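Need tokens for this chain, all 353 residues.
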Amino acid sequence: MPQLDSIRAFAILVVLVHHFLPVDKIIPTDFITLGLIGVRLFFVLSGFLITGILLRARGEERALRQFYYRRVLRIFPIYYLTLIIIFIVSPYLRSEGAWLAAYATNYITPFKSLEPAGHFWTLAVEEQFYLLWPFLMLLAPARHLLKIIVASIVLAVMFRFITVRFFHQGLVAGVWTFGCLDSLGLGALLAYVGFEPRLGAYREKLLRWSLVLGAVTVMLLTVCYLRNVGTSLNAALLCFGLSLLFMVLIARAADGMQGWIKTVLESSALIYIGRISYGLYVYHNFMPGIVKLFYAGGTGPRETAVSALAATALTFTAAILSWHLIEKPISKLKPRYNRDRQRGLPSPLEAQP
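Here are the structure tokens for all 353 residues:
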């Protein structure tokens, strides 16, 4: 599904724009930001891909072990390498190292700034999702899987509403894992409908209704925002509405869109950006600070553009080197697990003392 790599590319590019350019002067920071769009798109895509992997692995021997082995190889190396570097150069972040090392930053960022590592809250959400979701998708009875997925979506909407309405904690509602489960769950729902034969006939109907419901929800909430009413409703349903639209986009990309869209989404440049998107995300938020060490520009349009271009160049350089020198070589260990299991040999992780 090469077009999904391009969806990743679009998601990370809007995040870069959100963090590198002063778009908050144009786009209100308390409504639909580019960062919100990019992150929620990542969550829906992650829910779709991870759930698809898990559903196909149901009934396989050592499926859980294989899943975590592959996730560790993909996620841990450059994340913890980055943590080591920032702990060396930043005494403040070193003092908060336990939150960062434990993938728990999303629970502290609403109350304490961890910049420039604040963006790691999304990785914390993903990792916490990986801790629970595989057990549910692999071990729960098949008749309960759809109920679990729908319950996760409902839980997220209720959590955000209650958190904002009664506790006035909008940031908590947005970054704690409970408030992100609707995006992850809608991706999971898409994977489940495509996997379950008896539901395959309803897939197109689901996508049509998701498109309509998502568009109507976002439009109505936009009107509420402009009229400054329905704050709790906005917090509860905005991410849900956006995620419905993203679910349709991901479904179409997974099927393979045609025409000029196919040409764009299957361009080698976008696919490559999608493949290095994890590195781009991990490294990008540190680059503006590095640029300031060498370029003390002002806040004018020209200085801002120069700083953004420099930060973008540094981000891509780091991600490209990371992909070819660290991530790609390590990813070659993934198939080794299957070969070793087939031969009755211990996996590389099992072989370690």
